[in-house]
Amino acid sequence: MRWSYLFWLVVAGVAVAALFETKHKVQTLEDQLLTTERQIHQERETIEVLRAEWSYLNQPSRIEALAEKYLGLKPMTPQQIVSVDRLPPRPEDFDRVPVALDKLLPPAKPQQLPSVTTVGTGSTSVASAGLPGGKLAITPVSESKR
Amino acid sequence: MIGPHRKSSARVARVTPCGRDLGPNNGWVVELDGQTKTALEVGRTRLLVAGFVFALAFLGVAGRLIDLSLFGAVGEPLRAEAPSADELRPTRAAILDRNGEILATTLPVASIYANPHEIRDPVLAASRLATALPDIDPGEIRDRLASDRSFIWIKRHITPREMAAVNRLGIPGVRFQREETRVYPHGSLVSQVVGLTDIDGHGIAGMESAENGLLSDGRTPLRLSIDLRIQYIMAEELSAAMKTFDGIGAAGLVVDAHTGEILSMVSLPTFDPNDPAAAGPAARFNRASLGVYEMGSVFKLATAAMALDSGVVHLTDGFDVTHPIRVGRFRINDYHPIKGTISIPEIIMHSSNIGTVHMAMEAGTDRLLAFYGALGLTKRLKYELPETGEPLLPHPWREINTMTASYGQGIAVTPLQVVRATAAIANGGELPTLTLMHRTPDQRGRVTRVLTEETSRQMRWLMRLVVEKGTGRKADAPGYLVGGKTGTADKPSPKGGYAKNKRIASFIGAFPMDDPQYVIFAMVDEPKGIKATYGYATGGWVTAPVVSRVVERIAPLLGIAPRRGDDELDTERKIVPVVYRGTELAAR
Lengths: 146, 588
Hints:
- The complex is a heterodimer of chains A (146) and B (588).
- Chain A contains 5 helices and 2 strands.
- With 146 residues, chain A is mainly α.
- Chain A folds into 2 domains: 1-57; 73-145, no CATH class.
- Chain A has a two-stranded antiparallel ribbon with strand order 1-2.
- With 588 residues, chain B is an alpha+beta fold.
- Chain B has 3 domains: 3-49, no CATH class; 88-224, Penicillin-binding protein 2a (Domain 2) (Alpha-Beta Complex); 232-275 and 290-587, 3-Layer(aba) Sandwich (Beta-lactamase), CATH 3.40.710.
- In chain B, helix 10 runs antiparallel to helix 20 (544-558), helix 12 packs parallel to helix 14 and helix 14 packs across helix 16.
């Protein structure tokens, strides 16, 4: 009888200790969680502030002034954009095939110009004519005639 | 608790002393005689009742334990501490342009306040604060710090940099108060579109007001159709023109002809939404959307489209424009009088009022009104912004009103309505639904067919003709095939009739004309002629060059490839060959 009391007493003691330990751990974790959440909140706010700052620094007028000062770029003119199918054949092909240049060029058709990618803001845009899938690459005339 | 009962029941024999069989489960009851029996039975009943009550209580505790351990998470607060009021309130969502550039956002800001009772040396504190905050008046702050109050604001809404500087001073009694404020990084550039919020963060103008619900509870930012770069280019060119011609205001629009997205909406003068108190009513007024103006000759496009679409007039028809038209006391003149009979393309090209009136009268008032109605010119335009102007139409509508309305006088509409109508005329005949929200090409919104594709094709050619050879030559941007129509309207005088030297100069255009993608509009209010334009302040001199420069700058941004020389284009241009008196224009 005594032993069983003692046994249950020990069990109760262990249970109490375990409970205390667990509760303590939970509390610590909760504190950590709270701190982390606060930090996340603060970081988010900081990100938001920095985003606004970035947007502010990206004002087109500012970019334009900076580009004028440092880059020396100018707005692109239509003359600077050419589609690949309008390029003349390579010089080495001239000797092989003595055909008039205008016959080598494809007949004028609705112009499917390669996509124009633009970089920059405002007047300082740079465009480059890309090769969509290489479709517009010139087939050397010599090869097609052979 | 139940133990003793079991023990007592174990002692009870299954057969009573009298030999009665109590049965297997009846061991609980022990029959005794007299007082003892009563006392015992009372005791047992009490024990039974008490045991039952305790059993119930323990069951309850066990149930609650199970509930807590298994389902305990439900409905429990996740945090040990209740979140503060600031964190509970959702932050107002940001407004972005179509490329994700922030146009409006809500930022936490600090404000500095002080408790003068805790400040020991107000003079020193004030001078030190002035080193961190250069724009405050140290004398004033010193007086207030020396006052007998327990709370004074030192500066509201300081920057993080200022906050760090003040923090570094470490003056006791100086504290920070956390607040939130709406920030517009691009200031006056998009203020008419984005709008404003009041001190409590409720939208009171522009998109802030139109989408207030979405912005105040949503975490998703609002993405507009506005392209900041195009907005900037339009604003820059317009304000340059406004300055050159000493105008009192200007408006500019760039709209996707197919999706109806508004890429740029400029109204000058404008205001800085970060400092709304400084803005006068003129600066807050959205001329592009709220202002109604008699637009003048840009309406001739609508009249011509109506006449051609209804079939009463063909491109090859001509009218005699030698004599002014007289109706009662009215007299309709041409700005540059022409003698003889001219064709429809020539009427549009030279912007002949007389010829346009003839066209309109040929079709009749009913057709004209119905067509203007179909183009959305007679009713208030509905789109996101609350600031839309109600068109002004004559009441009652007489024949003379049909005549003047055909060339854009006596009927006042908003620039946005003109742009929408022109989009339909140029894009193949479908009236788009305008929007300030970002759309993808497949989200076109509701479109209504208002004229045939054939008429639209003819109108494209006419619009290109105006820029190639007519009044709008200065709008041309090499390679981008700008087409359009100039407009120079007399402004109504407050005394009645029209003011002599007050005009609205405008240009409505589209590009590229072989397949119009964008509609562009520019308008300057009350431009004055200058030497360089030989005293002219017409649409062709004031706003057509604006359109030319804007198109040249924005076309590369919009991914529109320039066309090569016109000789190559002519083979593919969708035009209607017109032969009229063997003139050059008619020969294609």
